[in-house]
Amino acid sequence: MGEKSLSKKGGKQATNKPKKTDTTESTQKAVVVGIVIIVVIVLVWVIKAAVSPDGTPTQGVSDDPTKGGSDPLVVIEEYSDFECPACLKMAPQLRQAVEEFGDDISVVYNDFPLPVNIHKYAFIAAEAGQCVFANEGNDAFWTYHDKLFEEQDVWASQATSKQTEDLFKGYVAELEYDTDAFEACLDKHEQRAIVQEDVNEGDAAEVQSTSTLFINGERYAGVGAYSSLQKEIKDQLKKAREQSGIDGVNGVEEDTNLTEEIKEDGSIEEVN
Predict the structure, then answer these.
(1) Which of 4, 106, 118, 208 could form a disulfide with 72 if both were Cys (CB 3.0 to 4.6 A apart)?
(2) Residue 222: pLDDT band with limits 50, 70, 90
């Protein structure tokens, strides 16, 4: 009798075991599905957070190249094209703004290469910049950024993409960056998706031309005198300081007697 009872008990265990396994598997599947749903929700939230309800880029931590303060009162989101003559003129203005306003502002660079029928090599130039950013870091990007603008007339006038890309590789060698890593990145178009992501964000923000800036979310398009950009930054700094209860605008006194001349190479000359 004892052996029969034991046998029945064992039989019951053998019969019930698969049921417990099925329940465990169902629970695991439910957990996995739940995690996937949470991840999707977070990703959607992050994408939507990239632009405000009116389509303008929002302030916050950026994975794009930046210069200026790490905790600025004013964030300038730039949408630029390395083959764009207006962007060539905007570059020194933004550089001067960072020098003038210091840690109170931050400039965030976004690629917005115009279509190939307008700027033939703008997209591959954007990829080159992103390759340097990915391989060498933020400071190296800005050095390469300046180099691409300095040599704009040279690489933009080449007959073939191969010739242009060879020049991009030559600039990397000249700056003593990792040429092997850069060539692999450029040849395999490893940063193409990053450039396209910037373009998509620009489209969502209704960027129509380059250079376009968003200064604390306020659209600023076109390139005029530096004093115009300076005034817009000061206005935004004043608003930010008033909201945070801080007085002054970085100790900067406005000199209304200064005018600016933009030279052909994009540099700025102030004249009394």
Answers:
(1) 106
(2) confident
Q: Are 193 and 123 in contact (CB under 8 A)?
A: no
Angle between helices 161-174 and 179-187 (to 10 degrees): 160
Question: How far is Cα 64 from Cα 112, in angstroms, rounded to an integer?
Answer: 13
pLDDT of residue 213: 98
- Please state, as a whole number, how many other Cβ atoms lie within 10 Å of the Cβ of residue 117: 6
Give 87's contacts (C-beta < 8 A, 6+ positions apart).
80, 81, 149, 210, 211
d(CA 220, CA 240): 17
Q: Note if the pTM is more than 0.85.
A: no
Q: What are the sequence ranges of the domains in the chain?
A: 66-251
Residue 71 main-chain phi, psi, to 5 deg? -135, 65
Categorize the per-residue pLDDT at 204 as very low, low, confident or very high, splitting at 50, 70 and 90: very high
| In CATH, 66-251 is 3.40.30.10 | yes
Q: Could you tell me if 150 and 92 are in contact, meaning their C-beta atoms sit under 8 angstroms apart?
A: no
| pLDDT for position 261 | 52
Q: Are 97 and 229 in contact (CB under 8 A)?
A: yes
Burial of residue 174 (number of CB atoms within 10 Å: 0-12, 13-18, 19+): exposed
